[in-house]
Design a protein that fits this description.
The chain has 325 residues and is α+β, with helices and mostly antiparallel strands. The chain has nine helices and eleven strands. The radius of gyration is 21 Å and the shape is globular.
């Protein structure tokens, strides 16, 4: 089932569905797409966002839209389909649509970062060995790349928000991507980590998570609820991969828009902060509904679609297997 991909999900489970809901939703979009009727799928997707921009259906539709972007007419139409009230993950996905269409970093992504490395020579094992230096032991900022055995440390800005070593400079070992930001007032919102590698994540000196093989074992995108006190803050991502490790970090508010009162810059000492892993509201709600004993198959499939959009193969498989029970 996993190998057949999202297009086949609705067809695979059509035998379980007794009737289509009266309103538009993700399942109707998938049905139209499976029938190769992209114009109908597009209209149903826009209607879903207009009807309920805070729902998991809207999040799943936005994820489908992002994957289908190259095949849709007037793909920018989705950017104005929802109102101001929307789920943060929907706003996050719409920013990625807008960024891809404009060939720029998505709104909310921290496009300017420090990149340092390589440290060690054993990729993910180096993350367990703790070979990435502490802040006061890093090479001086501005240290240029001079060879595969000499760590560099540069400030850079990427065209799409993704940060990692250029392929020509990538060798075995671990790398550090880091961001300094200043909160000019107390801020509550979301920290989102997208990665294609194994990462150790920390905020203001406190470790938040150790994620392994993001997109294969752990989710490709992980959400954290954060509270930032006024002052400077430091986000560190130690990363390693058998390929070229890449990470993108975003700070967004309750609608998925860039956090207000937060700007790039700042130096130690770092202000206080609090963070915990937590799914955004729509994803949390549909997961709770799908886990109930009396959950219907369409709800479980929406939960699987949301997990797929976040690059979470574990949850996607779990919900698909639940739909077959």
């Amino acid at each position: 089932l996993m190998a057949r991909g999202g297009h086949a999900v609705a067809a695979v489970f059509a035998m379980f569905l007794v009737a289509a809901p009266a309103r538009a939703g993700w399942l109707e979009v998938e049905r139209a797409d499976a029938d190769l009727d992209l114009p109908a799928a597009r209209q149903l997707g826009l209607a879903t966002l207009a009807e309920s921009a805070t729902s998991a259906d809207a999040v799943a539709v936005a994820s489908w839209w992002l994957r289908s972007l190259d095949h849709l007419q007037e793909p920018e139409a989705i950017l104005s389909a929802s109102g101001a009230e929307r789920d943060p993950e929907l706003g996050f996905l719409l920013a990625r649509v807008a960024g891809k269409l404009a060939s720029r970093p998505p709104a909310g992504a921290l496009a300017t970062a420090e990149l340092a490395g390589p440290f060690g020579r054993f990729d993910t094992l180096d993350l367990l060995r703790g070979v990435v230096p502490a802040e006061d032991q890093l090479p001086a900022l501005g240290t240029r790349w001079s060879g595969p055995s000499q760590p560099f440390r540069l400030r850079l800005r990427s065209a799409d928000g993704w940060v990692g070593p250029p392929e020509a400079m990538a060798v075995s070992g671990a790398y550090l991507a880091a961001w300094s930001v200043v909160a000019e007032a107390p801020v509550t919102g979301w920290l989102v980590i997208e990665a294609n590698a194994s990462v150790n994540l920390s905020l203001d000196g406190s470790e938040l998570a150790r994620l392994r093989e993001c997109g294969v074992v752990d989710p490709a995108a992980t959400w954290y609820r954060v509270e930032l006190d006024p002052g400077a803050h430091r986000i560190r991502v130690e990363m390693a991969s058998r390929g070229v490790p890449m990470v993108r970090v975003s700070l967004v508010d309750e609608t998925g828009s860039p956090m207000e009162s937060v700007r790039s810059g700042g130096e130690a000492p770092w202000a206080a902060s609090r963070a915990r892993a937590a799914p955004p509201p729509a994803a949390a709600a549909v997961a709770e509904q799908a886990a109930r004993a009396d959950a219907d198959v369409p709800t479980v499939l929406v939960a699987a679609a949301v997990a797929r959009g976040r690059g979470d193969p574990g949850d996607q498989r779990r919900w698909l297997e639940r739909a077959l029970e």
